[in-house]
């Protein structure tokens, strides 16, 4: 009813699977959005889930979690927090949500590293810095972090002098890897990123990926969690940089 819609305003909504009661989608909107999104054919994963429920002779349960919100930004932040809490892997949402990488769920150590990471001094030889700002997210599985860091890069013969790679997010070291060698880019070597890399296989010809493992002590603790942004070229677009 229009009278209800006018009072509800901006809201955050949930879709539940009536078969097990689990939330499978989180969204934000106003007006008829929560109902219109049930017939939206853009979201492949969500659409398949809804069709699966309907094939069982049921309908997804729609819940309005919070309404009459001040603005879209507030709704987006609540939506993102819910996605983080439930876990994007458990939902039909394809991304974590608004500003989730910088301000989403993280443990206390990650929060300290984000705002007050100690300065790191690089003294070792053969260090390569790799910025993974586009792929990083707090709470990443160690294998996901490795895959985000190892490739695939435009890098010349000097790569063979690299002994250790520092994976950076916003200038802070998220992991340290000992490099065992380099090989041509190959999406088949990946698990979490296989689909992404397979789709761009042709354009990645001539790129490289390293093979390695988490560095041993004391070099790992020497750099892990440290801010080494002073070694990055200001305004530089290349995600990789030698020290």
Short description:
The chain has helices at about 1-10, 35, 45-55, 70-85, 100-105, 110-115, 140-150, 195-200, 220-225; strands at about 10-15, 25-30, 60-70, 125-130, 165-170, 170-185, 210-215, 240.
Descriptive notes:
The protein is an alpha+beta fold and 243 residues long. It folds into 2 domains: 2-103, 3-Layer(aba) Sandwich (GIY-YIG endonuclease), CATH 3.40.1440; 109-242. It is 29% helix and 23% strand. It has 9 helices and 8 strands. It has helices at 2-8, 33-36, 44-55, 72-86, 100-103, 108-116, 142-150, 194-199, 219-223, and strands at residues 10-16, 23-29, 61-69, 127-131, 164-169, 172-184, 208-214, 240-242. The protein has a 5-stranded mixed sheet. A 3-stranded antiparallel sheet has the order 2-1-3. The longest helix is centred in the N-terminal third of the chain and has 15 residues, at 72-86. The protein is elongated.
Which stretches are poorly predicted, pLDDT < 50 over at least 5 residues? none
Radius of gyration: 22 Å
Mean pLDDT over all positions: 90
In terms of structural class, how would the helical and strand content be classed? alpha+beta
Mind summarizing the main beta sheet? 5 strands, mixed
Which helices and strands, and how do they pair?
Elements: H1 2-8, E1 10-16, E2 23-29, H2 33-36, H3 44-55, E3 61-69, H4 72-86, H5 100-103, H6 108-116, E4 127-131, H7 142-150, E5 164-169, E6 172-184, H8 194-199, E7 208-214, H9 219-223, E8 240-242
Parallel strand pairs: 4-5
Antiparallel strand pairs: 1-2, 1-3, 4-8, 5-6, 6-7
